[in-house]
Amino acid sequence: MALSAETESHIYRALRTASGAAAHLVALGFTIFVAVLARPGSSLFSWHPVLMSLAFSFLMTEALLVFSPESSLLRSLSRKGRARCHWVLQLLALLCALLGLGLVILHKEQLGKAHLATRHGQAGLLAVLWAG
After folding, report:
1. What angle do CA 128, 131, 132 make, to 5 degrees?
2. What is the pLDDT of residue 28?
3. HSE-up (13 A, CA, CB side) for residue 132
4. Any residues with CB less than 8 A from the CB of 19 and at least 6 apart, and which?
5. Rounded alpha-carbon distances, angstroms, from residue 20 to 51, 54, 78
6. What does 26-74 look like in DSSP terms, one character per residue?
7. Per the entry, which co-factors are needed (predicted)?
8. Which end of the chain is more exposed for a tag (fewer CB within 10 A), N or C?
9. What is residue 117's DSSP assignment?
10. 15-63 per-position pLDDT tens digit
11. Are 98 and 128 in contact (CB under 8 A)?
12. Distances, alpha carbon 84 to alpha carbons 21, 77, 79, 121, in Å
């Protein structure tokens, strides 16, 4: 038995809505998980994973979802308003990423360790540069 085009459309809309809700929850959940594990404030380095996950997991995801017709938390705003919110979220993400990068550089400087000596450090620098 084939589904009608209207029924198919409702199913796809419901799936897109559920996927958007899952994206919000995963982004927030992962950021909280990292913050709990890192215990921000316990050391200078502890802020690095918190700020990076806040930037790349939460803020950038929310900036993308602002334009989703099914899962945007700001559907009532005009397109111009959503564009401004997108811009602000992306700027906040970049600031968090730069601060996270700056703190890890300061931490390595205090310990006398080499900078960008690992693939993680090199990929992180590229990610922050690309976000900029």
Report:
1. 90
2. 98
3. 12
4. 71
5. 23, 18, 20
6. HHHHHHHHHHHHH-TTSSSTTHHHHHHHIIIIIIHHHHHHTT-TTT-TT
7. heme b
8. N
9. -
10. 999 999 999 999 999 999 999 999 999 999 999 999 999 999 999 999 9
11. yes
12. 22, 10, 9, 32
Q: How many C-beta atoms surround the C-beta of residue 66 within 10 A? A: 22
Q: Tokens for 93? A: 């993400």
Q: Do 107 and 44 touch, CB atoms closer than 8 A?
A: yes
Distance (Å, rounded) from C-alpha 65 to C-alpha 24?
8
| Domain map (residue ranges) of the chain | 1-130
Which single residue is written with the structure tokens 């960008």?
A: 116
> Residue with structure tokens 């380095």?
45
Show the tokens assigned to 98: 């730069």
Taking only the tens place, the pLDDT of each residue in 76-128 is: 999 999 999 999 999 999 999 999 999 999 999 999 999 989 999 999 999 99
pTM, to two decimals: 0.88
Farthest CA pair distance, the chain: 69
Cα end-to-end span (Å), the chain: 51
